[in-house]
Amino acid sequence: MMSFYKFWLRIINSKHILLLVVFIALFKPAFSENIDSLRLAYDYSEDAYKRINIQIEIAKEYYHRKSYDTSIFEFTKAISLIPNDSASLKAKTLEKLSKVYRKKEDMPNAIRTQKAAKDFYIQAGEGPETIAWQYASIGRGFYSEASYDSAMVYYMKSKEIFEKNEIHDESYGNLLHFIGSVFKRQGDDQKACEYYNEEVEFGKKYGYKHIEAEGLYLGGICIEDTRDALNNYFKCLTIYQEVESEKMMGLMYTLIAGAYANLDLNDSAIYYQEKWLKICEDGGEISHLASAHSTLAELLIRDNRLNEAEKHLAQALEIAKVAGVKAYIRFKDIYATYFNLSLAKKDYKNAVDYQSLWYSYRDSARNQEHQDAILEMDKIYNQEKQEAEHQKELALKEKQSMLDKQEIENQSQMNKILMAASILVLALGIFVFIKYRESQKQKKIIHHQKQAMEFQKELVEAKNKDIMDSMVYASSIQKAINTSEDYISTMFKDVFVFYQPRDIVSGDFYWGYQTEDGKKLIAVGDCTGHGVPGAMMSMLGNAFLNEIVVEGKLYEPAAILDKLRNQVKKALQTESRRDGMDMAFCCIENNKLYFAGANLPLYVLRKGTLIEIKGNKQPVGYQPLKETPFTQEEFELQAEDQIYLFSDGYADQFGGPKGKKYKYKTFREKLADISSMSFSQQRKVISEEFEVWKGDLEQLDDVCVLGIKV
Q1: Which of 104, 170, 105, 97 is nearest to 133 (CA)?
Q2: How far is CA 376 from the centre of its chain?
Q3: Non-local CB neighbours of 31 within 8 Å, separated by 6+ positions
Q4: Is residue 585 a contact partner of residue 619, using CB atoms and an 8 Å limit?
């Protein structure tokens, strides 16, 4: 206490208080600075994918700092930002989240997250080696829960994918290890050794040193002589040192320690077990840390270093209590060691208690059905232990009361210390005030930046409004150019039009014309693109049809499409563009229907039966393959026949419960179902069906369905 006082007195009497304040101001962990920098970058980034990647980096920072709960929260936030169409990025991030759950030993969530990652990898079309490893990782999660049957199901699925695709990467070697370990856990050492030996041969054949070493040390269970096993472990250690795998070097240390212990070379055993414990502590491996402490305690008991052993056992017990999986196995080993420690201390009463706990957890390790009862026993034991500690605390308080009387004599010294602390607080207050003023200046800068951003936002909104107004006006022009539904209704007994642009203006259009001698010409066009480009192309198509049919008096559908194709190509003035249109065009004269189609068919519904008349598989426009004249189909009509012309927008719309295309088959079935209805009712059903199918998804393309009754 006096040394602490003298230290502060020197600080107070010196002229370096300001230096101390500056030192405190500058002392800020690099971790916090990195997180703050990332969050600032996130807030100021306008690119969605940059924000996602920054959010992932924040989560990884917390993971590296072993702040697993915060890392889980940050990874979950990142996943919520990733759109579903970025399946690969979502899969990789879910896999990272699963890794954090494994570190926490929260295996149910680790398995759930790994399964989701696997599904998104499949959706992203990843290679078989990636998918195979996902199945292996899910199996590893079940293995950690001691659900060996479930683990083996996923391991075998992974093995099937590896072997079917002849994949010989390092992951396949790890899978052989995983499968062997299931047999080992189930007591079938012979079968386990077959897989471990296969792993060794695989590692040698393909040059995977890490895999070769792994198979060697796991195959140690097949070596009966302890000295041979020890030589085997040192051989593995040499390989792991070559490949610089510190974690696996640590595992070799504990196996070597066990072999030395079996040979009664306790000093060597303790030396190597302490090296393993150090690696577990540095790596934050909860799954191994408890057993590392308890095994070291067992070795220390043999060496009669009982107080050290008791400290390691206490640490092992605390770690095992927060372990998420296989805790009962660790409790079994810890209480067995406590039993040996009590015998060594000749504390036979506690030895009996620990033996009871040891046997209980041993039975649980054999049969998980008793786990709840064992946990209840541990709870009772901890309550009794807490009561004993409470009694001990009372005795300590009584002793502390006596010490407090002596402490009064030192009160004057404490007052001086408090004075020094007050000066420090004052210095800190000055520092805080200075930082506050700096923050106020920063707020003003941010306020001005915000005002500038608001101004820019208003400019953008004004421009957007101008664009929207122009689009609406363009839509009215397009409607005026298109043949009106009222005009077409004068040509036929009944008519309906379902016309729904995706973006105000449309690349779909419908056109009609009746000649003086009674020929009725009708068409539906679907131009390349949608929105403004599609609308401009549709107006061009409308104008060309008027020029070819109305002015040029050409009434043959196939000849009209040939002429229209030439006009479109001439207008676009290039052979390299894919712009153009698909079209269904028909001419009705008396009871005859003449039809030509460019990538679009025509449907005729007669008394509930649908008849499809197909067009040519080529567009009205540039054709990269050999260009052929359009062909013309002739069809005999009957009274009350219903004719449907349409673009591909309706059938290609994604929606429904699984987000799939509506498809032409479904469209034909729907038309047949509603054929007995009036055309006004048909239009209503067609419109409602489209909206229900689309749901919350975006409309994919412009839609046009034209129905006529002859």
Answers
A1: 170
A2: 38
A3: 61, 65
A4: no
Mean pLDDT of 690-702: 92
How far apart (Å, rounded) are the C-alpha atoms in residues 349 and 342? 8
pLDDT at 222 exceeding the cut of 90: no
Tally of residues, the chain: 710
Q: Nearest 5°: CA angle at 338, between 335 and 340?
A: 115
Nearest CA to 378 out of 428, 436, 331 is that of: 331
| Cα gap 339→485, rounded to integer Å | 94
For the stretch 489-543, pLDDT in tens is 999 999 999 999 998 889 999 999 999 999 999 999 999 877 888 888 898 899 9
Which tokens sit at 57? 């980096």
Contact predicate 643/710, CB 8 Å: yes
pLDDT (average), residues 151-167: 93
pLDDT per residue over 349-380, tens digit each? 887 788 878 777 776 555 543 344 334 444 43
Q: Quick one: three-class SS letters along 549-617? A: HHHCCCCCHHHHHHHHHHHHHHHHCCCCCCCEEEEEEEEEECCEEEEEEEECCEEEEECCEEEEECCEC
What single-letter amino acid sits at 454?
A: E
What region, left, alpha or beta, does residue 605 occupy, with left being phi > 0 and alpha being psi -120 to 50 degrees?
Answer: beta
Phi first, then psi: give them for residue 636, nearest 5 degrees: -85, 120
User: Which of 517, 500, 527, 598 has its CA nearest to residue 553?
Assistant: 517
The token duo for 279 is 């690696």
Cα three-residue angle 650-652-656, rounded to 5 degrees: 85
Name the pLDDT band for 326 (thresholds 50, 70, 90): low
Question: Can you list the pairs that 413-421 forms with residues at least 24 positions away whose Cβ atoms lie under 8 Å?
Answer: 413/1, 413/2, 413/5, 416/5, 416/9, 417/4, 417/5, 417/8, 419/12, 420/5, 420/8, 420/9, 420/11, 420/12, 421/8
358 burial level (CB within 10 Å; 0-12, 13-18, 19+): buried
Give the DSSP per-residue string, 42-87. HHH---HHHHHHHHHHHHHHHHHTT-HHHHHHHHHHHHHHS-TT-H
Query: For residues 366 and 329, what is the distance between their CA atoms, to the nearest angstrom?
Result: 9
Tokens of 164: 């079917």
In whole angstroms, give the CA distance from residue 501 to residue 507: 8
pTM of full prediction above 0.85? no
The helix-helix angle for 306-322 and 286-302 (nearest 10°) equals 160
The DSSP-derived string for 330-364 is HHHHHHHHHHHHHHHTT-HHHHHHHHHHHHHHHHH
